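Me: I hope this is not a bother. Any chance you could explain this protein sequence and its structure tokens? It all follows right here:
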Amino acid sequence: MRRRSGRAHRELAPSRGDHAPSGRDLRDVDPPIVLAAVVGLLRSGMSAQAAWETVGVTDVGEDGTPDLPWQGDCGVAVRAACRLSHRTGAPLATVLAAVSAHVESTLEADARREAAAAGPRLSARVLTFLPAVGLGLGAVVDSTVIRVVVETPMGWTLIAGAGALTMVGRAWMRRMMREAEEASREL
């Protein structure tokens, strides 16, 4: 579960009923935190317009959709939830709470996916430089290694083969990582 920073909660919480100053940049605050603040304000009896204004959204359309800075699925889901609530009369707090839970689980899955992919990416980087490191270690042990690699046809063949295999390996690793990320997004 993601930790919610107390600082972000304090920034969004209204102080003594005052509304937040217009122009607050919500791009710096996690969407679930903003949505939790709005849900809390709605459940305390505040109107939707006033709740959105309190967290820094000054432009709310006639159909109840706030003008949010979030792109992608999060912004679309919040706008759809607000339109649904406005058109059907469903309680906005309940609908936004469900959207917030979904957004939070999506962000958590993205973070876990990124963390899981970090290990294979690092391994690919290490393996990319391994042939050069091996050549360097060989030169430390025996100084004729560099001469053999640079001056003989067998050395040229080894360098060409190592370069080709390194490029093929990197392309293969990129493809595997891309396929793994696509498969995990489909879940």
Remarks:
- Residues 1-22 have pLDDT under 50 and may be disordered.
- The radius of gyration is 27 Å.
- The CA atoms of residues 123 and 144 lie 30 Å apart.
